[in-house]
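Project standup — Tuesday

K.O.: blocked on the structure for the chain from last sprint. Re-posting the sequence here as requested.
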Amino acid sequence: MVIANRKNKLFLLQAERHYAFGEMDLAAEKYKLAETSSKKHRFIHEEALACELAAAFHKEAGDKKNVAELIDRAVECYQTWGAEGKVKSILLSP
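H.V.: unblocked you, prediction finished:
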C-alpha cells in the first residue's frame, strides 16, 4: 500500500513507464496525477519535476499547447524552491 503523500512519486514513475512503452494516454493521465498530488502535499520540488517531465512528454507527443504552461509552472516551482541553477538550465534549453 502506498501512503497518500507518496503517491506523487508512484504516479510519476508510472507516467515515465507508460511513456517508455508508448502508452501515451495513460502517461498523460499519470503525469497530471503526479503534478496534482505533488501540489496537494506541497512538495514543490517534486511538482517542479513532474511539470518538467510532463512538458518533455507533451513536446515529444506534439502537444505544444501544454508545453509552455508546464514549463512556466516548473520554472515557478523551481524558483520557489530556490533552485536558480535549474531555472537557468531550463530557460537556456531549446
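K.O.: great, moving the ticket to review. The chain has a mean pLDDT of 94. The chain has five helices and no strands.
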